[in-house]
Design brief:
The complex is a heterodimer. Chain A is mostly helical. Chain A has helices spanning about 5-10, 10-35, 35-40, 45-70, 80-110, 120-135, 140-160, 170-190, 200-225. Chain A has one domain. Chain A contains nine helices and no strands. In chain A, helix 7 (about 140-160) runs antiparallel to helix 8. The N and C termini of chain A lie far apart (about 45 Å). By secondary structure, chain B is mostly helical. Chain B has a single domain (about 5-85), classed as Arc Repressor Mutant, subunit A, CATH 1.10.10.10. Chain B is built from four helices and two strands; from the N terminus they run H-H-H-E-E-H. Chain B has helices at about 5-20, 25-35, 35-50, 70-85; strands at about 55, 65. Chain B is globular and about 50 Å long. In chain B, about 20% of the residues are buried. Classes of the chains: A mainly alpha, B mainly alpha. The interface of A and B includes residues 36 and 109 of A.
Chain lengths: ~220, ~90
């Protein structure tokens, strides 16, 4: 007989899965809600905006949900759970990096449109971040990697903010994006260095959910459905 | 020209077709669009390609341009698209 779910999942893992589930639903709702206006307009900024939230959904799926699915449905795979965990972490790190790159590019594409190789560059960087993150799981390397990544993202956001010149909406939005990136990096650090941020886990999860819900609310308000 | 400009031009061409009781010959459409013939050709082919307009023959066997359902939908959603792009600074 299958053991009760509380034996399969300790409460903290269950709360992480609920958290991931909420983020996945919010991200997919943003992706689906913007489908029609993207299909009608073929607008490049919209393409990358949607792509960012698709990558967020994939990242959070591979963060916890995949383990839930494998364990709950008692799937016997030909590869060991350790390998499944490493592969899912690899996809998580790649997707999360791509999500950050896509969201930044959705705002900056007009300025960076001259380079034909951005997509390759983003993919290569995301793969490099994922491989380094998985290969060197020590606290030092993981922290350094994320600090460099966050510093680069902050620099780009600063340039975008400076270029807005009194546009209230954009500045407000960049503030939300900045917070989203900070809390997303905290999530990545939490995955790479378990227990490092454990005392703050709940507050990080709640603020992350709040940020995704704010963006979803603004999307649905604009789309009108 | 920015993509925003492209969306606006597409909307303007579709609007001309709609306001001509959804049936207009290509030449008056070119004139009313206010574009050079080269630019018009580029946008017109894009609109045909995206399925926003189609060409039909009228009773006199003249080629007429009409909006498709997708074309009407584009016009309906145009304001939403622009306000979304502005809201998210895309």
């Amino acid at each position: 007989m299958r053991p009760p779910i509380e034996f399969l999942f300790p409460p903290e893992l269950a709360s992480d899965m609920i958290y991931s589930f909420v983020i996945i639903v919010c991200s997919l709702m943003i992706y689906i809600a913007t489908k029609e206006i993207y299909e009608l307009s073929s607008y490049k900024g919209l393409k990358y905006f949607r792509q960012a939230f698709l990558f967020f959904a994939i990242a959070y799926f591979f963060r916890y949900f995949i383990m839930f699915v494998l364990t709950f449905f008692n799937l016997n795979l030909w590869i060991s759970p350790g390998v499944v965990f490493s592969l899912s972490m690899l996809v998580f790190l790649y997707s999360s990096s791509m999500a950050v790159f896509s969201l930044i590019y959705s705002v900056m594409w007009k300025k960076w449109n001259h380079s034909k190789f951005k997509n390759y560059i983003f993919n290569i960087l995301a793969i490099a971040i994922a491989v380094i993150g998985i290969t060197f799981r020590g606290i030092g390397v993981s922290l350094l990697l994320n600090v460099i990544f966050l510093a680069s993202v902050s620099f780009v956001l600063f340039i975008a903010y400076r270029d807005l010149k009194g546009k209230k909406t954009g500045k407000n939005l960049l503030g939300i994006y900045s917070l989203l990136f900070i809390f997303f990096f905290l999530n990545v650090i939490d995955v790479l260095i378990p227990k490092f941020l454990q005392p703050f886990n709940l507050i990080i999860s709640l603020i992350s959910i709040l940020l995704f819900m704010t963006i979803l609310y603004r999307v649905l308000k604009k789309i009108g459905n | 020209m920015s993509k925003r400009g492209k969306l606006e031009i597409m909307k303007d061409i579709l609007k001309v077709v709609q306001e001509s009781r959804n049936s207009i010959k290509p030449t008056p459409l070119l004139r009313k669009s206010g574009l050079s013939s080269t630019s018009f050709k580029e946008y017109y082919l894009a609109l045909l390609d995206k399925g926003f307009v189609k060409e039909v023959l009228d009773n006199n066997e003249d080629k007429m341009v009409i909006l498709t359902e997708k074309g009407f939908r584009f016009l309906e959603k145009y304001k939403t698209m622009i306000s979304f792009i502005e809201e998210f600074d895309l």
